[in-house]
Amino acid sequence: MANELDQPTEPAPSHAAAWWAFGFAVWTLLALMSVLQAAMYLGYVGEPIRWGFLVGVRMLDWYTCALFLPALVWLARRFPLGGPDTLRNVAVQLTTPMLFVVLKYALLLPIEHRLGRPESLTLTGVLAANAVTELMIFWAASAAIHGVEFYRRLRARERQALILEQRLTRARLDALTAQIRPHFLFNTLNSITTLIRRDPEGAERMVMQLADLLSATLRSPEEQEISLREEMDLLDSYLSIMQVRFGSRLSVERDVSASVTDALVPAFILQPLVENALEHGIARRPGPGRITIAASRNNGSLELTVGDDGPGIDDAASSPGNGIGLANTRKRLAELYSGRASLTIRSRTGEGTDVHIAIPFRATSYAARDKTVV
Q1: CATH number of the structural domain spanning residue 235
Q2: Taking the model in full, what pTM does it have?
């Protein structure tokens, strides 16, 4: 299937029509100015102004030039300026309009004879009187067309660069996501393994819940952002698995404002943070422990916090490059929000750790629709 970069760089039909309409308007304006100039001259020398004849001849003069505009556009695209063939292309652009001038008057002169021009006016005489001026007009039109074509090619390159940048970003995000999920799967399977002998029924429940969670996470693999409501549903599925592992040792507190449940968040962004809280907090705590999950809106930002009341982590463990979960989360935020997101860690020895994320607040489309209806 063809992708965006395989598409031709021709302008869209609506844009092409707009350019042709603009060119026709400019050409008509020049023709009317020519009529006005001729009328002023005739008035100055005391000659009668035959408006019908004057308008007909002058408009024909300019519109027969306009007949060659498609050919000039073709020349500009077929022989563009710039690149290794510039000298050859310049020569083509300068000499071809000479042929257009001859063809124009070969077409125009018989029509002007019918409008009242003297039959003694020959093609050679008309060319002698007007060829240089007409050639300059064609060159000016060609220069304008080259300007439009240069602008069009520049915009096409910008669009292609944007598409490439988006694809590169998507590839990096997919790679980061692909790295997180096997890591999460390995840790979960490891937890199941520890339960097989001690609690076979619990291990079986974890396997079934893991299958449901994997089905949910793989359902829409191309989505990089989902609603916070969907993210919380995925997180609840993961926590139900961990609840089997930790039993009464684990309690979870949620403080998620109803006003932010339709906000967009990176898919699978909370699970690695909760996993870290479980492994470095609850699992290392001798007694029962608590995980806290909070989400709220602060002006234009969505703030997410995952905390635990474990023993805390040292500076080395909390460094940006330590651990797949935190490192990948930082990279995903950087790719998705280009410096408009932050991740901070606050750890208190013996009191626990909080991981705080702030991202731009954006509601899902259906949330926006619901608010509009209300």
Answers
A1: 3.30.565.10
A2: 0.51
